[in-house]
Amino acid sequence: MKFLRNQLDKVKHNFEKGGKLEKYYYAYEAFETFLFAPNTTTHGKGVHVRDAIDLKRLMMTVILAMVPCLLFGTWNIGHQHFLALGQTGTFGEKILLGLGQVVPLIIVSYGVGLGIEFVFAIMRKHPVNEGYLVTGMLIPLVMPPDIPLWQVAVATAFAVVIGKEAFGGTGMNVVNIALTARAFLYFAYPSQISGEVWTLLGEGVKTVQGYSGATPLAVAAASTGNVMNDFAQFGSGWAEGIYSLNNLFLGIRPGSVGETSTLMCLVGAAILIITGVGSGRIIVSVFAGAYAMGLLLNVIGGNPFMEMPAHYHLVIGGLAFGAVFMATDPVTATHTGTGKWIYGFLIGVFTVLIRVFNPAYPEGIMLAILLMNVFAPLIDYFVLNANKNRRLKRATV
Question: Are 257 and 105 in contact (CB under 8 A)?
Fold first, then answer.
C-alpha cells in the first residue's frame, strides 16, 4: 500500500489547482479516498459531532451484509442449471458456472454506474460520493441470471441519470436507484425479465422433460386449484419438492441472482441491525404487513392465491431481500421512529395486494417500495405534526 500511496502523491500536483489536469481533480480524489482515508480535518469555531463511521464505511457495511446473498446466489445459479438439465454438478462446477454469470453483471453495473458518477462529478466540480458502492451491488442481485448485459448497462445508466443525478446526486434521489433500474427493465423489456430467464440455460440446451423455469410466485398466480398442491407437484420428474417450505426458505429455487434465500437475507438483516446501519423497525414491519395482509386474504378467500397460507408470502419472491436491503435505504425511507413502522407495514401490505390482484405482475415488492418511497416524506410530515400537536396540548393544559 505504501507503493500505491507514493504513486498517488507523485501525480497529485497535476490535479491540484493550477495543474494541467485540474479539471479532473475530483476523479483523482475519488480514487485516493477509496484507497486511503482522507487526511482532511474539520475547521471552524462551532461544535462538531464526530463519529467513527463515515459514508464509505456505512456503504461497505451494507455490502458486507449482502455477501451471504451474493455467495448463495452464485451457487444457486449453477445448481438450478444442472437441475434443469437433469445432471448432477459438483459444488465447484456450480460455483464456477454462477461466477461466469454474476461477475460480468457486477462489472457492467459498477463500470457504467461509476463512469457516469465520475462524469457528473467532474462537470459539477464536487467529490464522487460512495453511495453507488451499494447500488452497484444491488443492481446485479435483483437481476435474472440470464439477463443480457447490454440491458443491465442501459438500465443502470437510466437509473443513475434519471433516478439520481437528475435530482442532484447522492442523498437527493426520491426513489431507490437499484429498483429504478429493475423497474425500467420490467417496463421496457418485459420479455427479457420474465419466462425462463430465472434459470440459466444457454442457447440450444436441451432440458429434462417437463422442465419449467417458473418462479413460485408465477406458479401461485397461475393456480386454478390449490396453490399448495401446485407447489408439491411442481418440478415432478426433474426437481422433486423444489417448492417445499424448506427449499423456499433456504432459497434453492429459480429467481433473481440474490433474492431467493430468505435465510441469507436474514443473516444480512442481522448484520445491518447489529451495526446500526439498517432499521430493524422497517425490516420487521415489512414482514408484519405482508403476513397481516396474507392472513386477511385467507379469511376473505375468493381465489387460490388469496387462500395460500400467509407465511408463504414471506419466503416467496423478493420480499425478504426488499425488506432488508431496499426498504431500509436511508435516503428514500422514512426517518421518524413511528414513520418507519408505518412505512414498512404499508410496503408489506401493498406487496401482497399487488401480488394477488395484479395478474400481469405477481411480484409486488418492487412496486410497493417505489410507491412508498414517494410517500415517505408525507408519512414523516404527519408523524411530526402529530407529535407537535400532542406537545402543544400538554403545554396548554
Answer: yes
